[in-house]
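Allow me, if you will, to draw on your knowledge of protein folds for a short while. The matter concerns a single protein, recorded as an amino acid sequence and a row of backbone structure tokens. Could you please explain, in whatever detail you think fit, how the structure tokens follow from the sequence? I remain grateful for any guidance, and I place the record below:

…
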Amino acid sequence: MSQGYVTTPLGHVRVTCENGAVTRVRWGQVPPKIDDQEPDPVLADALAQIEAYFAGELTAFTVPVEVVGSAFQKQVCNAMQGIPFGETRTYGDLAKLCEAPAQAIGAACGGNPIPIIIPCHRVLGANNLGGFSGSGGIEDKVWLLRHEGAAGLLI
């Protein structure tokens, strides 16, 4: 396992990699310095891609991810990865795609272990923004949507 962090306009983002894939992204947590950690090219790539995303230079993440969770959690995360940069979907849209209740989709979005890279911020309620796991909550979701130009209704 390897860990690193990047500072973004929304605060620190901690990335964890295992077995050649990103397995977790957490908000606001800086990992302790580990001097004997082997360099991890996947971690370095993930950190660079997150920096490029926030700099407006990246619209699609290519770093490998491994969602640790139930088959349903993996299905919902896969559906979220299919939402293009600058676009949004509703919980209902994903509910139809995954053949599950919208409430279950909302719970799976909230349990997304790899936010930003797996874009749960692009999933909205039918009549509201829904929730968001970022340390700044819904304000972070609004920031990300504006950053992607997906927030015409918010601007």
In short: The chain is about 35% helix and 15% strand.
